[in-house]
Amino acid sequence: MNIPRRYWRNLDWPLILAVLCLTAIGMVVIYSASYSQLVAAGLSPFHYVRRQAVAFGLGLVLALIVIFFDYRAWKRWARLTYLGTLLLLVGVLVFGAKVFGSQRWVRLGPLSLQPSEMAKITLVLVLAKVFEKEENSQSLKGVLQAAALTLLPMGLILLQPDLGTAVIFVGLFFAMWYVGNARPKVLLITGLVLIVVAVLVIVASLQGWVSIIKPYQLTRILVFLDPYADRDGAGWNVIQSIIAIGSGGFFGKGILGGTQSSLHFLPANHTDFVFSVIAEEFGFLGSLFVLALFVLLIWRGLHIAAVAKDTYGTLLAAGATSIFFFHLVINVGMALGMMPVTGLPLPFITAGGSTMITSLIAVGIILNVGLRRSKIMF
Asked: pLDDT at residue 209 above 80?
């Protein structure tokens, strides 16, 4: 499909530059974080970097495809995409590979794909279609429909189990409901009720009355409240992360210079706690630069949502941008000990093919809406 030449003037270069910078930083950090581990195992120190580069290439191709097709045409594919995503989520529970007690991945030849990552994009598509009609965001029927569409894939993801991604689904629902012109009072009351229910579930699980939350997830919540309560067990990751961040100082220790990372005190240093490696090796200044790039990305995404041609475009851009916002807040909060450890990745920086591909598709959605913000002239 050809895009009129005048549309290319709307291409958001600051957003693209932020994504490219974050990806480049991610490659360097992944190399540094995994170097000693890979060398000790007799593997190339570029092992994870090469895999990340392949995922970036594939994600870039998919993002370009997303950009070329007018976003308004996606409505007719939303239902089919949603059903396909549910089938993938069921499939991963039946046939998926089990890693560290979680069944989240499907192997396709040399690639391991995580359907729950793609489910975030699908949820943005279907909620944008529902909340496009203002009456749906303000009527009980419309909100319940959107909630059901959110809870079904969310429930399948909880069975994997993957509590972190499930939390993102809750955030996306409320963010897109708000953008869809929800009544603030109803939105606030619903949020408060949900918080109360979550607290009651946690208390009930701690007392052994119900088993909705897994024991290791309860441990993570308790460790979040006091990491030193189990300093040699579940609290180890958080304690080492905080030490790594504090030891980086203002300018950091330099690439390959992070002792917590290179000496393997900090677990999952190229995945869950990659921000801790940034803070240790690039210091406060480097961490601030990375956060500034994410703020730039989110700001440009919200700007595109604000100037979108129609409500559907606004919801798509806002939903895709919300994915980055929630991942940033939870991942960095987890590294700082301000959030429970959930295993959520930091987009463009954490090593992981599915995360990279999903993030680039989300960027493609935002750019698509931005390109077509001018009305077609005949």
From this structure: no
Crossing angle for the helix pair 47-68 and 353-371, to the nearest 10 degrees: 30
The pLDDT value given to residue 378? 32
Q: CA-to-CA distance for 207 and 209, rounded, in angstroms?
A: 6
Q: Which two tokens mark 242?
A: 């905080």
CB 366 within 8 A of CB 307: no
Q: Which two tokens stand for residue 344?
A: 């959520």
Report residue 46 as tokens: 């570029």
Q: What does the H/E/C string look like for the chain?
A: CCCCHHHHHHCCHHHHHHHHHHHHHHHHHHHHHHHHHHHHCCCCCCHHHHHHHHHHHHHHHHHHHHHHCCHHHHHHHHHHHHHHHHHHHHHHHHHCEEECCEEEEEEECCEEECHHHHHHHHHHHHHHHHHCCHHHHHCHHHHHHHHHHHHHHHHHHHCCCCHHHHHHHHHHHHHHHHHCCCCHHHHHHHHHHHHHHHHHHHHHHHHCCCCCCCHHHHHHHHHHHCHHHHCCCCCHHHHHHHHHHHHCCCCCCCCCCCHHHHCCCCCCCCCCCHHHHHHHHHHHHHHHHHHHHHHHHHHHHHHHHHCCCCHHHHHHHHHHHHHHHHHHHHHHHHHCCCCCCCCCCCCCCCCCHHHHHHHHHHHHHHHHHHHCCCCCCC
Residue 376 has pLDDT above 60, yes or no: no
**What is the pTM assigned to this prediction?**
0.90
